[in-house]
Design a protein that fits this description.
Blueprint lengths: L3 E2 L3 H9 L4 E7 L4 H16 L4 E6 L4 H6 L7 E6 L2 E7 L3 H12 L4 H6 L14 H9 L4 E5 L9 H13 L4 E4 L4 H11 L6 E4 L2 E4 L1 H10 L1 H21 L3 H9 L4 E5 L9 H12 L5 E4 L4 H11 L6 E4 L2 E4 L1 H10 L1 H11 L1
Parallel strand pairs: 1-3, 2-3, 6-7, 10-11
Antiparallel strand pairs: 2-4, 4-5, 6-8, 8-9, 10-12, 12-13
Helix pairs in contact: 7-9, 12-14
GO biological process, one term: intracellular iron ion homeostasis
Keywords: Iron, Iron-sulfur, Metal-binding
Family: Belongs to the glutaredoxin family. CGFS subfamily.
């Protein structure tokens, strides 16, 4: 089956409602260049597996559907068996997309060729400075392994050995596939002053490469070092939140008279809804702060309960919830947003 467009939640639901439906959905945006490259891959995958429906949904035109599947950036892919969503994938990663399709739906042939396609077709759309991005990536979890391939599918023997060694410690860790991002692959060598991969980090500090990690695993110091890193991160989290997430959230929503909790930053929104609200609030001329909920999973999940509001973005004035995207845009349209926010700052 060729690539099909679902222009509404109803059309997408109809695809899922068919008997024995197998569906891969690409949430895209016209302004995102990598989405076009991923569409080309989707067409190849569709040709290789006629029993699977490959669909496109314009994320900003189908807000309700994007919110339903928590689309935080584009390109974004969801995988379905009937009405059940079985997996999701964020980012322009050609190998990962082809691998997930193969994993869930047994695609071969053209899809296998697509999986080994040059990574240029899957260049990321990140616009933040590379050093800032590398700092964020090396601290995304207390222990991070930069490797070739994934935790389940290492792409070289050195990466496989380090995965096994770190896994044997019993300490939780995340991984980043440097084959999926050439900027990270080259930039991290300079950032760490370490020329090879894999590279293991603990609390943002380089532990070492394959030889060092294996030596530490052999003498028992690896588990101790990673356990210390995990404990230090847990202590830092407790200190930041005073051991009480609600107290931390209360402080965050009042940290500026006007606060926007969004996906991404003011200069680099990571979803269309956040972009629209940034533009609407910015147009009022009222100063406001922002918090990137993608940077902190505790805040991202906890604020939904704290505010009794299930989606993002969320706009606050003097610690009180103003509303989400629809309410903010409606207030911007009728002129009441500027009035309300200006009154907040004046108070």
């Amino acid at each position: 089956m060729s690539l099909v467009d679902a222009r509404s939640a109803a059309e997408h639901d109809a695809l899922l409602a068919r008997p024995n439906a197998l569906v891969v959905t690409h949430f895209w945006a016209s302004w995102c260049e990598p989405c076009g490259a991923m569409d080309a891959l989707m067409r190849e995958l569709a040709a290789a597996r006629p029993a699977v429906t490959f669909a496109r949904v314009e994320a900003e035109a189908c807000d309700d559907l994007a919110e339903r599947y928590d689309v935080s950036a584009v390109p974004f892919f969801t995988f379905h068996r009937g009405a059940e969503k079985i997996d999701a994938l964020e980012g322009a990663d050609a190998r990962a997309l082809a691998g997930r399709v193969r994993q869930h739906f047994g695609v071969g042939g053209a899809a296998a060729a697509a999986a080994s396609a040059p990574a240029a077709a899957a260049a990321p759309a990140a616009a933040e400075p590379l050093d800032a991005r590398l700092k964020r990536l090396t601290t995304q979890t207390p222990v991070v392994l930069f490797m070739k391939g994934t935790l389940d599918e290492p792409r070289c023997g050195f990466s496989r050995k380090v995965v096994d060694a770190v896994g044997a410690t019993g300490i939780a860790f995340s991984t980043f596939d440097i084959l999926s991002d050439e900027d990270v692959r080259q930039g991290l060598k300079e950032y760490s002053n370490w020329p090879t991969y894999p590279q293991l980090y603990a609390n943002g500090e380089l532990v070492g490469g394959c030889d060092i990690v294996l030596e530490m695993a052999s003498d028992g110091s690896l588990k101790e070092a990673l356990a210390d890193a995990a404990a230090a991160a847990a202590d830092a989290d407790a200190d930041a939140g005073g051991g009480d997430l609600n107290a931390r959230l209360a402080a965050l929503v009042k940290s500026e008279p006007v606060m926007l909790f969004m996906k991404g930053t003011r200069d680099e929104p990571r979803c269309g809804f956040s972009r629209k609200v940034v533009d609407a609030v910015g147009a009022t001329g009222v100063p406001f702060g922002t918090f990137d909920i993608l940077s902190d999973e505790d805040v991202r999940q906890g604020l939904k309960e704290y505010s009794n509001w299930p989606t993002y973005p969320q706009l606050y004035a003097n610690g009180e919830l103003v509303g989400g995207c629809d309410i903010v845009l409606e207030m911007a349209s009728d002129g009441s947003l500027k009035e309300a926010l200006a009154a907040t700052v004046a108070a």
